[in-house]
Each structure stands twice: as structure tokens, then as C-alpha cells.
Amino acid sequence: MTSSSPDPSEYQPELEEIKPRICDILSKITGPSTFACGETISEYPNPGLILNEHGGIGLPLSEHDAEAIISKARQSPFGKGAETLVDTTVRRSWQLEPSQFQIRNPQWNSTVNKILGQVYTNLGLSGGAQNVSAQLYKLLLYEEGAFFKPHKDSEKTPGMFGTLVICLSSAHEGGDLVLTHNKETMTMSLASEFSMSSAAWYSDVLHEVKPVTSGYRLVLTYNLVRQNWSPEEMSLVYGRHKDQLVTALRQYETCLKARRFQYDCPDYLIHPLGHQYTQVSLRADQLKGADLGQTQCLQKAAGELGFALYLANMERTVVRDDGENMARRDNYGYGSRWNADDDDYDEYGEEISNETDFRFVARLDNGTRVDDDESLLGRVHVDADAMLDREAYECNVPDDKERSGFTGNEGCTATYWYRDTVLVIVPPAKRVPSLFECDVKGREIRSWVKRLQIDADSDVSKMQELADLCKAVLDGRPGRGRDLKDPFQIALMQQTALAALQVENVALFDRAMKDVTTPLPEEAYRRFGCLMARTSDTDAVETRVVSALKATRYLNMKYQSLLKVEQHFRDTVSGDVVPDQRVRFSYFSEKTLEEMADQAITSGTMRKVDGASLANIAGRWDLVNFAGRFLPGLLAQGVACKAAFANRLFKLLDSAKDEYGDIDTSLVSDGQQMCKAIYMRVWFAFELESQTTVAQLRSDRHKMSNSERMKAYDETLLNGDELADLLNNTFNLKAAREDQARSQLISSIKSVTDSATYVHTLLPFIKAILEQKVEMYRLDSDGQLSPQSVQMVTSSLESYITRFVGKEPKAPSDWSQLTRGCRSRCSDCAAVNRFLQSPTQKVGRFPMCKSRRQHLHNCFNNVSDVQYTIETLRNTEPNIWQITKHNKQYNNYESWKRRHDDATKRVKALQEAGPLRSYLGDMAEAVLSCDAARIAEARTHSGPFTEHAAVVTPSRLPLQNASPNSQPASVSRGSKRSANDDLVAKGEKRARPASPPDSSVQTPGKLVDIIDLTDD
């Protein structure tokens, strides 16, 4: 019985049939370009070469002028990795920098532009000739015997894609230019006594200059650069190829879905490009020739199917047993590529290892790196089966090699490196796992989620795609089920949670936040508000809002987050929404505020900004109720928190009076009595809080950055205007006498132990005094300074300078240190020792391979009593061994200088606020120059400022920490209780009842009925 032929429409080819088909399609997209071009310039002007300090250089070049050039030139170096070397066995020629000569003929630029136009056409460039320029790089002279072995040009400037040489008229023989690319070789003879020739090629083309056998070869070299360039769209001719690619990629996707085992079908495909590209030029608009056409065609096909394309630099490393080749001459390749018939190219011996890795993976559109550049692994392993043509790839000629030599009992090995730039073709279902494999931190995936969120905000049809992406991220994240510690992974999960709220999928939100213990970003609460206005499952959203707020430690952050929810609920809710929904939300909001305030008061970790937020919450309550419930706990908080609460509430009451005019006087009286009670407690035991307080109130213990530290100070310490408001409000309410408050303030300044209090509180307070913002330190009616204000300004500034700037230490002499290293004739150790002996050098950088870095590490780091640090910089190839000197004397001096310069800048800035010199008097120059020595000397003769000690006796005793119903100890029985005690007592009697959501919600307190203070 014979089997019938399969229906062609149902036939599904195997992977090994699909890959050659894709290769065949792409090979037909060849592009119009070649890798190099050249021509003879029959009509040309004399460039008018002028050699500095010599004069004109005639053409054809004479021996006399050639010798003049050599006398001013230096040997041409070459690049090996990150090093720049001079080795006449590799390169032998002379070079002049553009600063050493001039091209005087104004017609020369026109000639170069004409040559550039031919290069643009012959290399098949696109994007507009006006965007291609030739930048003069060097003048090279090759004398008899000069040459340059095979090499590739480095990209010396952004946008560089190739090299242009113009061989000037000079009699010589030899010096042929040989260019090789993709096993194709082109030879150009540019020698001519009476004409000029040009040649141009792409940067990654292997080329050499053969030895000059007689005469002199004189060459101007230019860097070819593209700027403001975008590639032209692929020709319609490629439309048929695009359709074929769509069919082939769809078959690959089907094959991938049908696989039983992972090794049956790779998660992505790899297509090697014809040219090699550096990390800087690894982007679509820098691709050359056929690479550009093939990539554009693949982009069109991938776009139809949802495939993703990435560019990557890939490296294959093969290690072989090389014992049989030790007798043969080794080739010092310097990164060059060997011809297959070169005697120095051998790939004999048993293969020991063969590994292929991505070294750099980038987005196609803008070159943004997507692999994990900070990973300990440093590279991503590549599945060799993903190569579209694995057999051809493994037959490539190596780009570099190294022989180890015999080491003890180990045999000799040879290592071969094969480097290519490739296109990585990723199907939709494997895009997220592939990105996680490249970047376990998920930065590119997070960027992808954010981009799709923006699209979905303006295009509802993108919502399902966003939901699918969220699910793929949660399914593919490494380390699922564990608490997250890595900040990048936390950021990714939070971004996914935001996207889940956007698509209104609470289950996905829960999955994203399951392993995250850090607070949600602000955007989450905006999404919560929108969702609460649209969802029918209000309970589920409310529960998650409360849970998210509990993960936030500080009241200020909780309050601002809840305001976001309220704002976006109101903005989203429709006009015809049922009243019950508004009532329910209002009840939820007020109940949540109450719980937040309770938690904050109980925690005992309220900062200044938390006190201000609590005042905003008080503005939404009946103040008597609020006082009864929260005032005792508030009085137990720190000075800055209490002051911020009272200052804010005082301002809210003033704003209400200004806005409404006929506001209930009892309401104002209740608020002022509460403020007065708080101000009395503040001055009963006043202290200026410091950076120690900041540390005690922090929610974590990680080392803060400078910006985080400044933010923490702003949120915790009183600033100058707030201290001024505290004093002004205190005296307006008669909560303390001026002499008492002044004495407490001076005493507190004496106990300041850190510069943060001066910088964030006292110096801004001095500024407020100079601006006449502090009532008790203002000029008198005759415009005269009071002794108290002079004392406050002068003593504060002198104390700041003497305590936290200090006297100038002795300046250091030099940076030289003792030498170390091995005793052998080691050039690396010698170079480091020359750096150590230098009296001026502070940082030494030495690019080298791992074995050489390890040797230096053993010689210079594993020793005692060193005054330097060593680190490896891994952002270049080869890595850089860096050594940084330390000098205790210098460090002390530099630390003082930084403090002095900062203090001088701050103190002098105070002059803009008012007549600072008038306050300082004879001490003005010493203070303004922050000269601690002069200040100390002056005070030795004149003595310090004095102030009369005073015991603070408040005009009304502060509330005690005991029950608000108890009387202060100094109040006798039968006497009248203070109004403050009455306020607290009334609060307990008028406690606020809770209301269930289904009953009518009573508006709490008369203050809310009159004004809304929460947006002030």
C-alpha cells in the first residue's frame, strides 16, 4: 500500500529545511555596495602643503622635502585592544598630526568633496551624500621598506564608518593596498609620480600596505563620518523576498510550538551580517550595504508576525591542543584576520572547548543595550543550533589567536576567537524569556512594558497585548516565589503591577506584588483611583489600596498617595454615577485617613512633613474630636513634627479666615488653642533636631546617596522659615515669652553636633533674620539692630565656622610612594612603579589581559601598609587595571578645603539677604572668609558672647503626657483649668462614631462643612 503525497497547503517542513530557506532568501538581498573602491584622479589641484616651521612641500615629493617631513614626524603607532603601541615589525611609517601642517589651496576642499561623491556612489551608501563628510586625520609618509601588516581600522570618532586615503603625487614603487572582506580580496596600486589616487573602504575591512620597494609614498588619510543620517527604505524589489520570509518565519514559529523537547528547536534564530560593527555603531542606521537591505527586509517580515529583531556582537572561542605547532613560528596578529592559506594559521589538534556567546546585544532602532552589562557572567551563552547556517559559520577564519606555551605538567594550547555581528530573530512567544536570558535584571523588559502602557493609554486595542505581556513577564521571571531583593527586579514587578491595574486585572496585580515588600510608586494610586471609579468589585480594590498604604511607613507618603486616589476617582467618575458610589468612596477615604493617623501616632516615628500632613488631616475633622483622639500622642513626637503640625494648622486657620471672613469664631478658637498647647510643649523642652534624628526615623538602613540625604533632611529638620514661623506664631498666641524662647534657642544652638543642622536650619534662619522675617529679631523703630539679633547672627556663624570648618591643616608635599612589585624584569611592574614614584600622578590606568592583571594584583595588592586602592574597570576590552593613590595628609587638607569652600559660599550668599556686615561688625572679614584661626584669636582677646540664663516659665503650662482629663501638677484643686485642658476633655466626650457604608454618612465636624483645606 503506497502513502499518498501530503497536501502542500498542509505540509510543515522541519527546522533543518526552514533555516536554509531563510538563508537563501536573505542571500538574494545583496545590496548595491562593495566593501572598497578606488580611482585615479587625473585632474587635481596642488593641495599647497605647508609644513610648520619648515615651509612648502612640493609635489611630486622630493627627497629633500621627504626628509623634512621625517624630521618633524613620529613613528606611526597601531592599536591592540585598548593599547596604542609602536612596533616597527608590525607597522613602519611616519605620521604628522593635522596641527603640524596646513593645506593652503582653497580649491582642495572641492576636490575632496568630488572624491567623496564618488565614494558615496561606489560604496552604495544611502541617506544623502550631504550627510557624509571626510575629516582629515593624518599625513603619512612611507619610505623604502615601510609597510603596515593586515589590520582593521578602529572607529576614531562618533559616526565613523570608513576610511578615505588620497595618495599624493610622489615617485615610488611597491606600497600596494590589499583589502580583504568575506574571503574576497581587492588589490590597488596607487603609485604615481604625476597623478593622485584615492581609495576608500569600510572600517571593518581587513587591509594592509605592502612594503615600499623604492621612493616615498605620501598619503593624506581621512575618517569617513555619517551625521544626521537615516537609511532609505528598502526597494520595492525586495517585496517578494519579504513575503517569502513571512512564510518561512511562520513555519519556524509553528515548528517551535510543536516541539516536544527544548533542543528540538531553538528559541531564536541567528543571521550573521557581512560586516562587523563596534558597540557604538550597533544600530540599524549604521548598517552597511547588503546588511542594511537584509535587515530592512527582515524588519518588514518580523513586523507582520510580531517577531523581535536585535543586533548583537557574537564571539566564538575555540581552544585546541597545540603541542604539534610549538616549533612553528607564532604570528603576532594584533587583532588581524588570517588568510586560510597563511602558514601561521593552523587549526590542528584536538578540540578542547568550543563556546559561543553574545558579547553585546542591542535594540535595532537606537542601539540601546539590552543584555546585562553588569552581570558576573559578562556574556550570554548562544545555542549554536540557532545559526541559520551553522556549517558555514564554523568554517570561518579566526579573527585572533593566542598560544599558551608549555606550563609545568600542562601541554600547549591555542585559543582561536571568531567575532561576528549578527541579527537575532526572536518569535513573539520567546521574546520575554530571551530577554530575561540576556538581562536577568529585566531593564529592557521594563522599558517594553512602559512603552506599551503609553500606547495603551491612547489606543484601547493595545490593552490585550499589554495584559499578555504582563502574564509573560510573570511566567518567565527568574526566581519566582522568592522575596525580591534586587532593585531592578523589584522595579520590573512594580511596573508590571502598574500595567495590571491599567488593564484592570487585579489577579495579575496580586501576582506581580506577591514577592515585593517595597512601597508602590505614586502612579499606582492614580491607577487605583481610576479603577475604583470603573470597577464593580469595589471591595477588592479598596483592600489592595489599604494593603499598599500599609507597606508605606510614613504618614506624609500615605496621605499624598490617598490624595492621588481621591483626585483620580473624582476625575474618572462619570457625572451620572449613582450617589451611593460617591458616598461609599467618601466613607472609605475618611476611614482610611483615620487609620493612617492612628498608625502614625502609635509608631512614634513621625517626621516634620508627617506633622504637616497630620494638620491637613485635622482640617477635614472636627478639631475638638481630633484633639481628644490625637493630641496626646502628637505631643509625644519630636520638636520638628510638633512645630510643623502647629505651623500648618495655624496657616490653614488664617487662610480660612481670609477666604470666608465670617467663619465660626469657636472653630478658630479651638484651632488656636490646640496650636498654643503644642507651642507651649515645644518651648518647654526645645531642641534643634539633627542628622541623628534623621537616622533614627529612617525606614531602612541602606547607605544614602547625597540626594537621598538632602531629601531626608528636608523632610525631617526644620528649615529657617519654619523656625521663624514657630517663633512668630508662639508670640502671636502668647505661648511663651521672648526672653525665654531666645534663651532656649541659644542653648539649643550650643548643643548642635553636626553640620546638617547648621546648613538646613540655622543658616536659613540667619537669612530669615536678615530679611526681617523674625519679629523678635527685627530692626527697632529707629532702624537699629538689637543686641539680641547681633548676638544670634554672629555667634551662630562663628560657631558654624569654628566647629565644622576648623583651622586650615598643613598642605601636602607630593604624591610619590614606595615602589613594590616583582624582582624580575617585568615591564608591567616597572610601569606601575614609575607611576608610584611620580610626585604628581594620582591615578594610573593599565589596559591588559586577565593573567597580567592577576600578576599585578598579587604584587601590589596582596601586601601590607599600602596607601592606594586597586580596581578593575570592565567597560573596555581589554579590561583596565586601575590604581588610585591615597595620602592621609592630602585627604585631610582636601576635606578641609571642601568644607571651607562650601561654608564660604554659604556665608557670602547671606549678604544678599540683608546687611550682614552690620551684624558682624569687626568680625566681618574673619567670618566672611571662614577663617577659624582669626575667629579663635579674636575671641581669645574679646571673650565669647554671653547671655543671661533664664528658666522657661510658660505663660500657660504645657499638657502632660498622662490622661488628657488630668490637671497639670501645678494647678491647685478648685482653681480654673486652662482652656487647653477643656479642649481635650471636650474631645473625649464628642468622639467621632464610625458609620457603615450602607447607612447615611454624617459629615464629621463643622470645620469640613465650612472649608476644604486639603489642597492648600
UniProtKB/TrEMBL annotation:
- Location of the Fe2OG dioxygenase domain: 130-226
Show the stretches that span the lipid bilayer.
Answer: none
Origin: domain of life: Eukaryota
One matching Pfam family, short form?
A: 2OG-FeII_Oxy_3
Ranges of compositional bias, category Polar residues: 958-973
Q: Which InterPro entries match?
A: Oxoglu/Fe-dep_dioxygenase_dom, Pro_4_hyd_alph_FE2OG_OXY
Disordered: annotated segments = 955-1016
Q: Where is the composition biased (Basic and acidic residues)?
A: 978-991
PANTHER family, per database record = FE2OG DIOXYGENASE DOMAIN-CONTAINING PROTEIN, MYND-TYPE DOMAIN-CONTAINING PROTEIN
Output this protein's name.
Fe2OG dioxygenase domain-containing protein
According to its UniProt entry, this protein's organism is: Exophiala sideris
